[in-house]
Design a protein that fits this description.
Blueprint: H1 2-36, H2 43-46, E1 53-58, H3 60-63, H4 70-75, E2 84-89, H5 95-100, H6 102-105, E3 113-117, H7 120-125, H8 129-146, E4 150-154, H9 166-185, E5 188-190, H10 192-200, H11 213-226, H12 230-236, H13 250-265
Helix pairs in contact: 1-11, 8-9
Transmembrane segments: 12-35
Protein name: Lysophospholipase L1
Keywords: Membrane, Transmembrane, Transmembrane helix
């Protein structure tokens, strides 16, 4: 009897170990593809292409390995095949981080156009508004001084889909700073937040901000290990545009794709 119990206990332990190992492998796949894998066409890979470069500078929403890849969608559009789309998004970047690498990752590409989408991490980290405004102005001025590129500053997507939540009230101040910086610098402003807010406002039940790394890892694992669409992952959490309260579903990414494509299709005089 004792021997049988020992054997049974060993089998249970072995089964638990197998489950744990499988879980680690599956989450490892999601974590690698979302957080460690480089996006397509980084500055180091794509700068120097004979085609005119469009550099998209920002953080994880630009990088697009966790959530919808709006730069990849731009790259696949037949009307934009003449451009080399450079992905200069780095996970976790703040406006200060982007400013520190603006010469190597943006200016060095000699771009004809630059989009800037940065600030979500500034809001999360509590970076003072005036410091953020100064960083964004310095980023814009640096590109203007050293290139002849057209520049578009993008407003920040909502954080969670409850637009009345405290974090989105704070976010509104940063978005005003983006619009004012664009006006002061004489560059274009793309209303990402405004378009997304129109979509979210149509929903009766809107989920408040509740981002966590574990939620982001879960979304990545569902997508990369089990093949679930970003839109389905968002919907399973009661959301429309955001998979984890920050990063984009495919529908969320499509909002940015359309705004950027429309901007690129305009002549500078338009």
């Amino acid at each position: 009897m004792v021997r049988k119990r020992i054997v049974s206990g060993k089998r249970i332990i072995a089964s638990v170990c197998v489950v744990l190992a499988a879980t680690l492998v599956v989450t490892g796949v999601g974590g690698y593809f979302a957080f460690l894998r480089s996006p397509a066409n980084t500055p180091g890979e794509a700068c120097g292409s004979p085609r005119p470069a469009v550099v998209a500078a920002g953080a994880s929403i630009t990088r697009g390995t966790l959530g919808g890849d709006w730069i990849g969608s731009l790259r696949s559009r037949p009307d934009l095949v003449g451009y080399e789309f450079v992905n200069a998004g780095i996970n976790g970047n703040t406006s200060a981080d982007l400013l520190a690498r603006i010469d190597t990752d943006v200016v060095a590409c000699r771009p004809v156009a630059v989009t800037i989408l940065v600030g979500t991490n500034d809001v999360r980290d509590g970076v003072p508004l005036e410091r953020y405004r100064g960083n964004l102005a310095a980023i814009t001025a640096r590109i203007q001084d050293r290139t002849g590129a057209r520049i578009a500053l993008m407003s920040l997507p909502p954080m969670g889909e409850d637009l009345n939540a405290e974090i989105n009230r704070r976010l509104a101040d940063y978005n005003r700073a983006i619009e004012e910086t664009a006006a002061n610098a004489g560059v274009d402003y793309l209303p990402v937040h405004e378009r997304m807010a129109e979509i979210v406002a149509q929903r009766e039940n809107r989920t408040p901000y509740d981002f966590s790394f574990l939620l982001a890892l879960s979304a990545a694992t569902q997508h990369y290990a089990f093949g679930r669409r970003w839109d389905d992952i968002a919907a399973s959490g009661g959301r429309e545009l955001l998979i984890d309260h920050i990063h984009l579903s495919d529908r969320g990414a499509a909002v940015i794709t359309e705004l950027a494509a429309d901007w690129l299709s305009r002549t500078p005089e338009a």
